[in-house]
């Protein structure tokens, strides 16, 4: 499996992600949106964006590991933050790109502020697609 990431000429510079990710034919894993829930299903850190990001990272690493993948095999991320405050979005990006999942965000990534997420008090959710070895 080959993963190629690029930033084509004519597109703006990015803060670490790539505009285009191409994967040779093979298997992919599409993770459900990873939420800031602990193993018992309880919301971690209501109103604490940092704690929620950390739980989302931990959950994503478990989900990726279950299919034999790690952050380096991630080919697409979409980050949802329940906030209209750009500084909250920037804080989430910074925390994710400084986490053990950091390599996942060097690929095609989208960061979106939304009105609300699925659980009361939920502030962040992460959607991930990974390329798996044949």
Automatic annotation (TrEMBL):
It comes from the Bacteria. It holds the Pfam family Ribonuc_L-PSP. Signal peptide: none annotated. One of its GO terms (molecular function) is hydrolase activity. Its EC number is 3.5.-.-. Keywords: Hydrolase. InterPro entries: RutC-like_sf, YjgF/YER057c/UK114. This is RidA family protein.
């Amino acid at each position: 499996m080959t993963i190629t990431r690029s930033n084509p000429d004519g597109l703006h510079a990015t803060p670490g992600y790539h505009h285009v990710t191409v994967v040779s034919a093979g298997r992919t894993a599409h993770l459900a949106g990873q939420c800031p829930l602990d193993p018992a299903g309880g919301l971690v850190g209501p109103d604490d964006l940092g704690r929620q990001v950390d739980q989302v990272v931990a959950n994503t690493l478990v989900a990726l590991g279950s299919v034999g993948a790690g952050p380096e095999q991630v080919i697409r991320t979409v980050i949802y933050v329940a906030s209209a405050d750009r500084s909250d979005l920037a804080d989430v990006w910074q925390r994710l790109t400084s986490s053990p999942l950091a390599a996942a965000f060097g690929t095609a990534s989208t960061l979106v502020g939304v009105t609300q997420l699925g659980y009361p008090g939920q502030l962040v959710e992460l959607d991930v697609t990974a390329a798996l070895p044949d």
